[in-house]
Design goal:
mainly beta, OB fold (Dihydrolipoamide Acetyltransferase, E2P), 39% strand, rod-shaped, single chain
Amino acid sequence: MKYIVTLNGTDYEVDVTELKEAIVTNAVPSAPAAAAAPAMPSAPAAQPAPAPAAPVSGTGTPVKSPMPGTILKVNATAGQKVKEGDILFILEAMKMENEIVAPTDGTVSQIIANKGASVATDEVLAFIG
């Protein structure tokens, strides 16, 4: 089969034939071989995985973290009345500050995340009852 191959702006006609086995006609290393690196010591034994956190249970609508990050500020307290859109937390993620807002009107029944806490995606931060 014939193909047209463009390399650095120049077209070349290439004739390709299927073979049953590979034939190497010229092997040139792309870079000089580096000296062999000294053998690395074997990796330390793996630590057992930490036990998963107990599931958080509360009453009301959960306020969840949309992404992993660190809680920079907690703007709500348990028992505080909030309206939909009120800023409850400031979450730092990827060097940006993100506002975590109340998803609904109500009273904050429980604050779970504290300032400085690292949180994961979909981790419950608070409950609004």
